Amino acid sequence: MESMEEVMFKAQTLIEALPYIREFSNKKVVVKYGGSAMIDKELQLSVIKDVALLKLVGMQPIIVHGGGKEISKWMGKVGKESEFVEGLRVTDEETMEIAEMVLGKVNKGLVQMVEKLGVKAVGLSGKDGGILKVEKKLANGQDIGYVGNITSVNTELIDTLIANDFIPIIAPVGLDKDYQTYNINADDAACAVATAIGAEKLAFLTDIEGVCTNPEDKNTLISVLTLDEADKLIENGVIGGGMLPKIKNCIDAVNNGVSRVHILDGRKNHCLLLEFFTKRGIGTAILKHEGMLEHES
Amino acid sequence: MESMEEVMFKAQTLIEALPYIREFSNKKVVVKYGGSAMIDKELQLSVIKDVALLKLVGMQPIIVHGGGKEISKWMGKVGKESEFVEGLRVTDEETMEIAEMVLGKVNKGLVQMVEKLGVKAVGLSGKDGGILKVEKKLANGQDIGYVGNITSVNTELIDTLIANDFIPIIAPVGLDKDYQTYNINADDAACAVATAIGAEKLAFLTDIEGVCTNPEDKNTLISVLTLDEADKLIENGVIGGGMLPKIKNCIDAVNNGVSRVHILDGRKNHCLLLEFFTKRGIGTAILKHEGMLEHES
Amino acid sequence: MESMEEVMFKAQTLIEALPYIREFSNKKVVVKYGGSAMIDKELQLSVIKDVALLKLVGMQPIIVHGGGKEISKWMGKVGKESEFVEGLRVTDEETMEIAEMVLGKVNKGLVQMVEKLGVKAVGLSGKDGGILKVEKKLANGQDIGYVGNITSVNTELIDTLIANDFIPIIAPVGLDKDYQTYNINADDAACAVATAIGAEKLAFLTDIEGVCTNPEDKNTLISVLTLDEADKLIENGVIGGGMLPKIKNCIDAVNNGVSRVHILDGRKNHCLLLEFFTKRGIGTAILKHEGMLEHES
Amino acid sequence: MESMEEVMFKAQTLIEALPYIREFSNKKVVVKYGGSAMIDKELQLSVIKDVALLKLVGMQPIIVHGGGKEISKWMGKVGKESEFVEGLRVTDEETMEIAEMVLGKVNKGLVQMVEKLGVKAVGLSGKDGGILKVEKKLANGQDIGYVGNITSVNTELIDTLIANDFIPIIAPVGLDKDYQTYNINADDAACAVATAIGAEKLAFLTDIEGVCTNPEDKNTLISVLTLDEADKLIENGVIGGGMLPKIKNCIDAVNNGVSRVHILDGRKNHCLLLEFFTKRGIGTAILKHEGMLEHES
Amino acid sequence: MESMEEVMFKAQTLIEALPYIREFSNKKVVVKYGGSAMIDKELQLSVIKDVALLKLVGMQPIIVHGGGKEISKWMGKVGKESEFVEGLRVTDEETMEIAEMVLGKVNKGLVQMVEKLGVKAVGLSGKDGGILKVEKKLANGQDIGYVGNITSVNTELIDTLIANDFIPIIAPVGLDKDYQTYNINADDAACAVATAIGAEKLAFLTDIEGVCTNPEDKNTLISVLTLDEADKLIENGVIGGGMLPKIKNCIDAVNNGVSRVHILDGRKNHCLLLEFFTKRGIGTAILKHEGMLEHES
Amino acid sequence: MESMEEVMFKAQTLIEALPYIREFSNKKVVVKYGGSAMIDKELQLSVIKDVALLKLVGMQPIIVHGGGKEISKWMGKVGKESEFVEGLRVTDEETMEIAEMVLGKVNKGLVQMVEKLGVKAVGLSGKDGGILKVEKKLANGQDIGYVGNITSVNTELIDTLIANDFIPIIAPVGLDKDYQTYNINADDAACAVATAIGAEKLAFLTDIEGVCTNPEDKNTLISVLTLDEADKLIENGVIGGGMLPKIKNCIDAVNNGVSRVHILDGRKNHCLLLEFFTKRGIGTAILKHEGMLEHES
């Protein structure tokens, strides 16, 4: 049996969450789910529990997930090699078929975890209800097959599901104008969906602490980054490499109306809850300008 | 800055609340607010914060409050003595006038506290929308004036407010068939309202630990009491005195469809949260039979 | 048994009301209730019956009431002197407490009368649902305590109640940004509410005949006053004294979209009905310009 | 200009109507419109104004009208003789064609008068939306052509129009199962419609004072008739002749749930208003049993 | 029993209709019904079946009909001569009365046919719900009586009926500002209604093949006519005579937002279906410019 | 260009469909999609077009599909042998994983085809929204792994999608009470879904002509089979083998409220349209008793 001090600390914690719950009530939140948090079983459960809690306290979470490592594993199983250009998977017809199957399996696996917690979920791909329309994306000018650039998002199905209290869980697959299937970068998909549905927040679960002025030293983590500051960090090269497209996505999202984009360390248990419901900030928040600081920061 | 352990403990607490939040989502909960919790400023805030949190995580709380001590204070101010028969205030016309004024002040004071937390509230008396209809109540066969027995509850106004996300806060005043004003016992009012609106829970904030087999020894607290057990305790005199009418109210409420009636110690900070959202039980829960134990017990 | 002529005259009266009923169907009407009409028992009933009839024939009445004389009476009961600066009550904490209690009693008394006529009513103060937000008002530059100037009106609760066929009855009490209670001038409150909810009409029940060019001679009553004419009467001093702030309120209301503001003689039985449903005008109507004359004038 | 006494009498009349308006609010009332009240221009306007007022104060009136005399007139114009068996018009194909045309003209004429008063109306026949389904009716065992007995009423169209605040005005024409057109007795149609839509009241505008124990002496008018009493009057022959089928219709309507059927003297101006909104009863009311007396009787 | 080839051809036909059904789903279509198609019994049934099918596959058809020949016939029956100025019927009071009666009969006859197919219909004139408001129309500067020019269309009743799945069938009769009845040209009425309700299509059933460059040679039929082309044909006199006002109506409709106006040959069985659901065009389609060609053309 | 005869035949075909379209309007129809119709590209398109047309003319189709052959193919690709007991696939964890992936791919492929026709579709498995709950199914008493028996169907998600005009396409995968994934027989799933949502029709696309008294001779096809007749055919062994469980499913569905179950030959182009919209029956219809024959039979 827990001590009375512990019990009171618990009550205090719930009360501490009160202003955040009130503030985010009915707000849409897109969670880009990927990286280590998708592989480690304990982290998986931690993320899914966080998302379920967001839903139960009145927010409207939407999950957009990746599945790169799992796709590579199944490519191997059927004796096919994975090939990448500029970080993008070269996607011929058979690769596309395998990718879609694997993403579908991952997708329904997430549905299963959410449903097990007693919360309603629906697994979708960007084909369902015509959510994601794409055109071919070139890698450095080179045709690498069925890799798509999102051209439009149809939010009708997502809106219908949210209005009926289902959590939409979306795999990054879409159709071009001839209804051919394409693979989509999950970060791009999350960003496009967040913008299209008018999300309040977009949270990327990543395998880093956040944005650091010195990536080698996690004590240099930047808690809050305005668009102007982000531009400067890009200019002077602090943000570069694999971080660059992600940050550009974040900037786009903020420019298109998402109030706050979070780069969170998905390797930490309950990173979503800690970011959303406690005073202690986690990772890096990107927002338009300082005036938009939330009270918790 | 808090330590990482503290932070993780907080996350754990929020996650621990998940099944309770899910289970009580959209359920109506009547809180009878009275006793010490209404007088001590810190306890007041603690109760109001708890109720606001219940609302924010998706429950539908309704407050029914008393105000006896405050009424006596104002009786004194205008030079009038308070007189009681069988625990009921003898209520002539002027007393009724003062009682209604004081209850109105207490009522709007609670509205003020809830609104300050950013949650919508409306202060009502049983006159508004004809909520409480009464007939004269005798004390031991004696006419003690405008003291009423509830004969019917019109829930239309309460339902309208709940459906529009206001917390109704109700003072125990009603009208008889000639539209004369009557004073009502707050426990009776809470019980009648809970039954009429189909509440899932009815929680009495009291100045005791709960029901004890030996009232002198709080280690004999009974956590769960079925109707059969309660009947027996009444029969063999363990429950008696001022406790008797309260327990009878509880039994009535359970018999009329309220799943669970709680007798909580209002002198403990956040007793509502602790009871509703943690494994550790507080006070005594009264329910139909053992099979109805909630998972938390 | 009445004669056939009387009966036919009655039918004719009902038919005469037809165009007014059609014209005002579903329109919102704010009635500022105060003065003699609040004290005389017969006048009280006459006003309440009029308001109930407005509701029953399809209009949406809202009552805003005062209670100055009653407050002074109770101040006396607890041995406190009333003090005024520039017609505003100096309001220390205890005075505020008493004022709120008395206004609450008056408020629920009106609810009781409307309910007795079989029409649904809800008694509110400006605290409920955050209806009235204020800031401190100075009297001639002097701090006279908790007397408030309305800064904003939140109509959500009023709209909800109207949509569900309740008549809102509002006491002029509000909260400042720190959620401190303030007393408000009832005329100001009526005017602010009428403007905020988009009322078609605002009717002040007063203790005068209306605006007279010679206040001593009620034969000089002005039936219709345009804004331009009102300005002139203020300029040349015909309107002055206690009348001035009331007329300024009327002008504000008309400028903010209320089609017609009526200054009625609340000492006349059924003055509301006579003004709204018969050809014979009562009191003074203030409107934007002559082109807005209703057919009845 | 009217005197103050007149004005106060008017106010009093409006207030007197208050309980009736409240009681009948949203109730459906079927008015069978026929006889002198359809021919005299002044009476026409009086009836239409009454119906418009019923609508404006919140009732849901439906008009079912006849047109016998007008049909005979047009039969003459095209050189065709009218022929009756047992009071029913022998209706060959050409007669049916003329009857339908004339009823259509009368119908749209009524629409025109209601619309002119600023109230929305729609003219229908029993063909529209399949309202009236019939089978052939024999007169004394004799086939007299397209004269129909109502077999069912489809209320969907009427309900739709009422819900959107139109007054339905219905001509008594229907279709049999082969979709052949039939003429219907207007009393029958009014009765069937009142029963099917669950009307509170059904009022017949007739050319008599009401039911009299001695038809020669209008001082013997019966104000209230219970079903038992009506049966007795039929048995002992007081009710007979043309009155018999009308009274049987009334009895049917009451037996099928219409609370009160009124036989009114349509030759009196505003007979509907006088019956519905004043204490003085007009004509004869038929109801289930004495206990159902309205307060006005 | 039909052969398998026939059966497959049928399936193919249904499938061929798929894109048209999808494209016109929920779109409003006004059908001006007149000419031979109103007289020949077989053509009547063919038109009504077409309209019923449009409704059943998800379109929202509205019929506006004429009745000139039938009116002349009944004028004769009552011994009155028809007289025309500039193609408009001189309409004195009695003529108006007859015209309204005959149009009413035609109107309810169409309702009857639609209802017989199991589809819900309501027959209206422009008086009902104040649909058509008019002013007097002069013929060549000459007053020819109750012939009206449409000044406004109130779509509330039409919208209500459509929303409840009734087909509105409208006779071209209207009221002026004094609520006097007027006769209206049916083409004008169809055009005004189509514009006011925002119809996608307006189809005129006529007694010609469509617009021909040489009216003598039906091989010169123009399938598609843009507004520019129509203007040219009017300028150089190819379109003239009785065709001119009809084409001007079409041009107005297109200019006011109707996407496509069709001049169809009502003498051909199922001309509506053939135009709307097969690749083979019928008659002449008038549209804004070539870019608006539908896929079927 | 097609001949005029062809065109008229087309119009006739559309008109012939009118009574069926009217009759099935808004009715739910479950199509079990499997067998040859899922493999042949042309048949696939034919089925999908039929379903799209059902939707467009107002029915509410739901597809439940299988995927056995495709699963076996992919089992082979990763070097795993398929094993069957009593016609049920032995399903270890890896087989389940592959089956779910393949069914997911098939599922989204169908979505893609429907979307390409301009109709909205959503691909689901029985996990989404908790649609299909199962328990382990034994084959002849033998545990063959993750093969499930449906124990309950949650229709909330299906109902939500239908109400918003999406076609739900469902893969036969479900969860047991521990949220473990199971494979389900597609016929069972179709039958359970049809029963749970209250479908009017359930159509099985099979690789046979229908039920024949002599399976070798397709001229012995039974067009209509009542439950009694079906029982007899089972008793005397005419129905047996692989047909037996399918017919038992049909009988269950009819007993649980599905009006009509069709066994259609999916190898015939547009078999759904021919069955639903033409007089010529296809395959075998199973219904409660002869009295329920539709007009088309």
TrEMBL record, chains A, B, C, D, E, F:
Annotated ranges, domain Aspartate/glutamate/uridylate kinase: 27-265
Site note Transition state stabilizer, residues: 32, 246
Pathway: Amino-acid biosynthesis; L-arginine biosynthesis; N(2)-acetyl-L-ornithine from L-glutamate: step 2/4
Subcellular location as annotated: Cytoplasm
Keywords: Amino-acid biosynthesis, Arginine biosynthesis, ATP-binding, Cytoplasm, Kinase, Nucleotide-binding, Transferase
Catalytic class of the enzyme: transferase
Binding site for substrate: 67-68, 89, 183
Described function: Catalyzes the ATP-dependent phosphorylation of N-acetyl-L-glutamate.
PANTHER family per UniProt: N-ACETYLGLUTAMATE SYNTHASE (PTHR23342), N-ACETYLGLUTAMATE SYNTHASE, MITOCHONDRIAL (PTHR23342:SF0)
Protein name: Acetylglutamate kinase
